[in-house]
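This is your field. Pick holes in the following sequence-structure pair:
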Amino acid sequence: MQEQLTDLIVQRINEESVQLKQQFFNKHPFKVARHFALDKLLPQELAEKIYAEFAPLKQMRTLNSSGECKLKFMQLKNTSPLLQDLTFAIQDPKVVAAIEQITEIKDQQPDPKPAAGGVTMMPKGGFINPHLDNSHDVAKNLYRTVNLLYYVSPDWKEENGGNFELWDELVERAIVVPSLFNRLVVMETTPTSWHAVNPVRCESPRSCVFNYFFSEKSPKQHEYFHMTSFNARPEQKIRRVIVSAKRAIFNSVGKLFRNPD
């Protein structure tokens, strides 16, 4: 099944390659992370089967803080064979190469574990505040290059909430990319690629399979390092001051342990 999924994903990316590249290099009124959205990634029946494989909420770990509220599988082995096949299909070198052709980000490679990705479900009220992902892989040797998000909640509408947001460098303005069923969103990851998920408003959970690609080379042509860093929304002024101070402390500590020799 893994090979079949890989071939279907590569075929769909290649079919829309011109349009996807236009999306990725599109100039927005204000600067956000480059990205594209590809609809109908897989045949509908297969996408529906993937959604059905998501485990009951009680089997997932709850992540609940001032910055996020979601349910996540921390170990890929705890998911179903189909979800594992899908994850490894997305991590296939042929998919990496197809994405590289669109983004023109060179020398990308799959997650070496894979350990960074997984599956998430976001129940009513779930959200993720603006944040930056870890800049590196688990071993802190490779730079993250792109974030790949595959949404599988049937009949999802923008008014349901739970939609992907891309924020400008100051985290003042955002554009919304609806988390539509069977949609793949690919976003570059850099020191300023702030992104978020607005609160889920409906009773059904928003379900997502997420992955990352990596590179030995810095996407920005210079060295940088940061841990997962949360910010607050513009209206959360006091929280923004607090999380900014925490972010500076965590990143300083993270740098100390990056190269323990």
Notes: Residues 2-222 form a domain with the Jelly Rolls fold (CATH 2.60.120.620).
